[in-house]
Amino acid sequence: MADEGDKQGSTWPMPKFYFSVNLGDPGQIPFQEVTGLDTESEPIQYRAGDNKAFNVIKMPGLIKSGNVTLKKGIFVNDNRFWKWFENIKMNLIKRQSVTISLLDLEAKPTMVWKLANAFPTKIVGTDLKSDGNEVAVETLELAHEKLTIENGK
Question: Given a cut of 70, is residue 127 above it in pLDDT?
Fold first, then answer.
């Protein structure tokens, strides 16, 4: 029997528009978009010297994750990303944990992505156009050491 849609069950996939991002020290910040939540294993190719077959075997190798990109609207006097980035110039990189949560209709996390020891690698300010009427959006790119995924509780 199909789910009637009155509550989110295992029948329907989760919508991706309701999420929250917690950057640790600055806390909860509203973002427009999050991309780059990926991780992969580099395959190792190996062939033993006494193997009579003319092929290699593949084994899982090092795990690597790409950078995570966050986009948000620019607000008056909100330059906390630039202050965080300034620490890199002074060689005082402040690494922090970042939590990204996909929320259900009751604002409870259903999936949680955690970035360990994240720090900014790139900040892109908005483009400016005299004839545009879009919202000013800035982009923050974070490098991290490990991506873990948990189910909400």
Answer: yes
Q: Where are the domains of the chain?
A: 19-151
For residue 145, give both structure tokens.
């050491």
Looking at residue 62, its amino acid is L
pLDDT tens-digit readout, 8-28: 556 778 888 999 999 877 678
Q: Any idea which residue has 């009579």 for tokens?
A: 52
Task: Decide: 59 and 47 in contact? Cβ < 8 Å.
Answer: no
Tell me the pLDDT tens digit for each residue of 78-109: 888 888 888 777 677 788 999 999 998 888 99
Residue 138, C-beta contacts closer than 8 angstroms, at least 6 positions apart: 71, 72, 73, 74, 81, 123, 124, 125, 126
Instruction: Specify the CATH architecture of the domain 19-151.
Output: Roll (2.30)
